[in-house]
Backbone:
């Protein structure tokens, strides 16, 4: 494990920028989101979680697939430099790895044909994900339900812990180790550092509410599709879709055109299963025409169907949907209700 | 690009447009690049400035230098399609999905049950099967429409019905004075078939309500669950199993279907809605 003094962070980031396009949390109006950073001063890490999620980095809310005019079809050029992300939380890093399974087909499905998405792959290839330990998790955090926690290194290329005077940095992947070994200011940690890290981790974990055992969640969901419980769960949802937009793992989208015949752009836009039009067919027929069906679909996709296809929940416990919901729906309460429900 | 661009359409020339019924037209296309599909697969058709929409070709999959698509005027893309006259260039990407496993139909009697514009993809299936008709025992084609005027491919039926291996039966919900065939729902036609249903393969394509009652009738007659092939088309967008629009439980209809056997989806909730 390496360390460098906190004051050397700008230097470390400049070092990263030699090879990478650097993304980090930054102010966006009154909120924070991941942005391309040109200097250290733009970074805003005053919040634990960025308001908006990091899927934007590799899967933008609006992405031009190609433009067309009388000369034919032009696809956007691939990025010049690979992406490095500073300031990811461990939940966000895990969410990016999940989306990679969907878009790159990194996780080969044996029986099901899966396509590789060139737009995702172009941005994601050779990227460096640097996640940072959460010293003081929020009341909305529930990553510990998913075998994770504030000091979970899973999926990171480099894992960072901010100490009192030092950043501690652990190279998790070969790529991450190589980057750290090449930074002149990085020193090896000693026993005293190890003790500080241990204390920080214990303190951070003490902030978390005890984890809920959700090992029965999938099998429970398999049995309650028709249950009146959904009326209770979904009654107050106004289908605004904020949860899906702010979710780092939701990845539904729509392919649409901007422009006119002969000249325009084909774009891919975030979409959400919360919207009535999402499933509406040209004939007028709509398989999920009412709100309850859509709430059920979102819960089922995250905690049941995705598990069928990828053997994991499509949720990292980042808690963004809990903070953003305008009618105070709390996915943790929904899960608790489902688990407690007698069939 | 590291990978082949799966979103990029290839150009097709629109040779001509024919009117099938008040709301349905057939578009005759010539691909300008190499293009193949299997019967039952669908494509995404592009109209510049409007967007894409999914359709299943209605011409034989054995013909690769031409392609026909029959489209009902319903949404944005179809309305724009219906304004086309011929001579335009359209973009098409695909094909997507799995299509019908024809090898499983070989040496069997086949029932093809369709209604409305659902007859379009079935025409592709029937024409494809007819190119190797000796492989099938017999094909029972049971088709329905609201009125005689609503039947698409009006010129095709005399030729189809004259094929000795094809038993063509048609029904309309509401007959007129010229109608000589069955009046009533299309599932009535199934009751007229003389066959060993337990060894028969059935294919169903049409509006959701027809799919439901057609399947129930086939099951009642003794067709095996694994021998009933259903076209479960939804509002497919990407065609790649990623965008989420066509999710049916853990399946994505676009890549895991759009053709499923009843056996594969019968335990999925609300498949008929």
Residues:
């Amino acid at each position: 494990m390496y360390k460098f003094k906190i004051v050397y962070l700008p230097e470390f980031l400049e070092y990263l920028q030699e090879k990478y396009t650097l993304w980090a949390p930054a102010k966006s109006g009154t909120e924070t989101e991941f942005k391309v950073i040109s200097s250290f001063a733009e970074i805003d890490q005053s919040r634990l979680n960025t308001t908006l999620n990091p899927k934007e980095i590799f899967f933008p809310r609006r992405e031009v697939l190609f433009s067309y005019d009388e000369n034919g079809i032009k696809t956007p050029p691939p990025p010049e430099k690979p992406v490095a992300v500073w300031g990811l939380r461990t939940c966000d890093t895990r969410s990016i790895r999940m989306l990679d399974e969907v878009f790159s087909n990194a996780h080969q499905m044996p029986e099901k044909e899966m396509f590789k998405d060139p737009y995702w792959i172009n941005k994601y290839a050779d990227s460096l994900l640097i996640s940072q330990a959460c010293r003081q998790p929020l009341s909305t955090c529930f990553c510990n339900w998913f075998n994770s926690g504030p000091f979970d290194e899973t999926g990171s290329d480099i894992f960072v812990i901010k100490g009192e005077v030092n950043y501690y940095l652990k190279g998790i992947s070969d790529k991450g180790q190589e980057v750290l070994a090449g930074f002149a200011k990085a020193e090896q940690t000693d026993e005293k550092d190890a003790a500080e890290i241990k204390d920080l981790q214990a303190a951070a974990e003490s902030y978390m509410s005890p984890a809920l055992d959700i090992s029965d969640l999938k099998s429970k969901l398999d049995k309650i599709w028709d249950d009146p419980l959904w009326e209770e769960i979904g009654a107050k949802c106004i289908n605004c879709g904020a949860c899906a937009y702010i979710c780092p793992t939701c990845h539904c989208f729509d392919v649409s055109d901007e422009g006119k015949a002969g000249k325009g752009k084909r774009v891919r836009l975030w979409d959400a299963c919360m919207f009535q039009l999402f499933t509406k067919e040209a004939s007028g027929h709509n398989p999920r025409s009412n709100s309850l069906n859509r709430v059920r679909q979102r819960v089922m996709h995250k905690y049941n169907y995705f598990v069928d296809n990828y053997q994991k929940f499509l949720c990292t416990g980042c808690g963004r949907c809990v903070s953003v919901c305008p009618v105070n729906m709390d996915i943790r309460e929904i899960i608790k209700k489902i688990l407690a429900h007698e069939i | 690009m590291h990978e082949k661009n799966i979103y990029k359409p290839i150009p097709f020339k629109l040779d001509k447009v024919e009117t099938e019924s008040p709301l349905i037209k057939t578009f005759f296309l010539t691909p300008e690049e190499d293009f193949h599909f299997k019967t039952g697969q669908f494509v995404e058709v592009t109209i510049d400035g409007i967007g894409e929409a999914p359709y299943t070709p209605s011409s034989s999959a054995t013909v690769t230098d031409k392609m026909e698509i029959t489209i009902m005027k319903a949404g944005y893309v179809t309305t724009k399609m219906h304004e086309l006259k011929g001579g335009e260039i359209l973009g098409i990407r695909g094909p997507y999905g799995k299509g019908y496993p024809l090898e499983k139909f070989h040496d069997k009697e086949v029932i093809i049950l369709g209604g409305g514009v659902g007859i379009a993809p079935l025409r592709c299936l029937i024409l494809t099967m007819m190119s190797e008709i000796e492989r099938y025992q017999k094909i029972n084609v049971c088709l329905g429409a609201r009125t005689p005027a609503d039947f698409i491919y009006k010129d095709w039926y005399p030729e189809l019905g004259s094929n000795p291996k094809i038993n063509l039966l048609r029904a309309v919900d509401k007959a007129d004075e010229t109608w000589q065939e069955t009046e009533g729902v299309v599932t009535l036609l199934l009751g007229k078939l003389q066959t060993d249903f337990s060894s028969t393969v059935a294919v169903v394509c049409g509006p959701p309500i027809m799919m439901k009652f057609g399947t129930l009738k086939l099951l009642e007659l003794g067709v095996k669950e694994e021998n009933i092939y259903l076209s479960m088309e939804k509002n497919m967008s990407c065609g790649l199993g990623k965008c989420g629009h066509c999710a049916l439980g853990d399946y994505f209809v676009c890549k895991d279907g759009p053709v499923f056997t009843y056996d594969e989806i019968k335990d999925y909730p609300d498949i008929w809605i």
